[in-house]
């Protein structure tokens, strides 16, 4: 499938979408799906990492609210509508009821069915209790148009860290909320959930496309920032028997893609703020596992709160999703599996000479 979204900026795309709805024609980027194989091909939307942050009373951090409101509004404008919407975790900043309620209210405005992934910012205050009341189970699977989707809670850690180390739940949450806090603890899916996953996948045909949603990457990128899942290899081993497994994750607030054996990995954007690539940080270089970068987000303007944030849609054509990144105030990007190189590729990979050089961070 070719993509034409990149040649139309998002603003005019949305205008086209609005006009198309009025004129009962379809926006150009989605027409192609209808002509390909309507029984198999479909689109869903993905919104992640809203980090809704309570200040006091009825006040919340406005920038983070605006990011989520914008993603919900733009998702509702898609024509035809996505089959469903995933929310990729970190709905809240510090896991409070006020934050989760406020975020849930904004997500309730979505017209499509919503599925949710647990993030560490949602979890470590009450260990997911209130989140589960709002959104249901923390790991589950479902089938849609021939694709098997699995949602994992990948942000668990050791019982010792979770239950014995911190005097209060609030402190536990704060320790895990810091990006580069050495008091944090590596994320893991855990033995119990891996056993559930093995049982769930045992019922799925090996040729069935499998898409796994997690919050942290099910690969080891950079431990210092917890861009990491400690039992990644064990989870990958459960996915490898399938023909085209794909893992889609949030948490990293930037575009990443990777291929490990036959498993394809894609990250999604945050609506709140972007993280720079670890490569732009000197301490990351020695242990960086990240194999390939798209556009290094060096925060040329760290005071520009919408730099490199956004949301995305995914076209599922057969086994490998194609991600269309709708970046707030940046050029839209498309990353999809390229069979010629056997891995995902950015359709408009940025010329290194045109990149903004790494900045000094303090
Ligand atoms: Fe996040
Ligand atoms: Fe996270």
What ligand molecules are bound, each kind once?
fe (ii) ion
Helix/sheet category = alpha/beta
- The count of β-strands is 15
> How are helices and strands ordered from N to C?
HHEEEHEHEHHEEHHHEHEEEEEEE
**Could you describe the largest sheet, including whether it forms a barrel?**
7 strands, mixed
N-to-C CA distance: 43 Å
The strand line-up of the biggest sheet is 5-4-1-12-13-14-15
Computed over alpha carbons, the radius of gyration is: 19 Å
Which fold does the CATH topology refer to?
Purple Acid Phosphatase, chain A, domain 2
CATH 2nd-level architecture: 4-Layer Sandwich
* Mean pLDDT reading: 85
The fraction of residues in strands falls at 15-25%
The CATH superfamily is Metallo-dependent phosphatases
Helix content, binned percent? 25-40%
How many structural domains are formed by the residues?
Answer: 1
């Amino acid at each position: 499938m070719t993509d034409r979204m990149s040649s139309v900026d998002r603003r005019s795309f949305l205008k086209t979408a609005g006009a198309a709805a009025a004129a009962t024609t379809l926006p150009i980027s989605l027409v192609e799906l209808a002509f390909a194989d309507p029984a198999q091909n479909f689109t869903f939307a993905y919104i992640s990492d809203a980090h809704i942050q309570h200040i006091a009373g009825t006040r919340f951090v406005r920038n983070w609210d605006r990011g989520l409101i914008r993603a919900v509004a733009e998702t509702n404008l898609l024509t035809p509508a996505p089959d469903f919407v995933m929310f990729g975790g970190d709905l809240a900043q510090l896991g409070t009821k006020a934050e989760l309620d406020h975020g849930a209210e904004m997500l309730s405005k979505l017209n499509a069915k919503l599925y949710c992934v647990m993030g560490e910012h949602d979890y470590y205050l009450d260990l997911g209790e209130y989140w589960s009341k709002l959104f249901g189970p923390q790991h589950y699977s479902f089938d849609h148009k021939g694709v098997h989707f699995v949602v994992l809670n990948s942000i668990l850690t050791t019982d010792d860290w979770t239950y014995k180390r911190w005097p209060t739940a609030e402190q536990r949450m704060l320790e895990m909320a810091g990006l580069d806090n050495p008091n944090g603890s590596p994320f893991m899916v855990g033995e119990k959930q891996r056993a559930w996953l093995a049982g769930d996948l045992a019922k799925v045909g090996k040729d069935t496309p499998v898409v796994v949603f997690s919050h942290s990457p099910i690969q080891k990128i950079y431990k210092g920032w917890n861009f990491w899942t400690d039992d990644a290899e064990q989870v990958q081993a459960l996915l490898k028997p399938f023909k085209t497994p794909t893992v889609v994750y949030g948490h990293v607030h930037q575009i990443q893609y990777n291929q490990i054996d036959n498993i394809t990995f894609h990250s999604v954007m945050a609506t709140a703020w972007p993280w720079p690539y670890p490569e732009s940080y000197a301490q990351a270089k020695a242990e960086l596992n990240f194999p390939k970068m798209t556009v290094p987000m060096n925060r040329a303007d760290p005071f520009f709160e919408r730099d490199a944030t956004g949301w995305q849609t995914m076209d599922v054509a057969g086994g490998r999703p194609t991600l269309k990144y709708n970046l707030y105030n940046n050029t839209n990007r498309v990353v999809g599996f390229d069979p010629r190189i056997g891995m995902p590729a950015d359709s408009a990979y940025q010329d290194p000479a045109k990149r903004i050089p790494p900045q000094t961070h303090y």
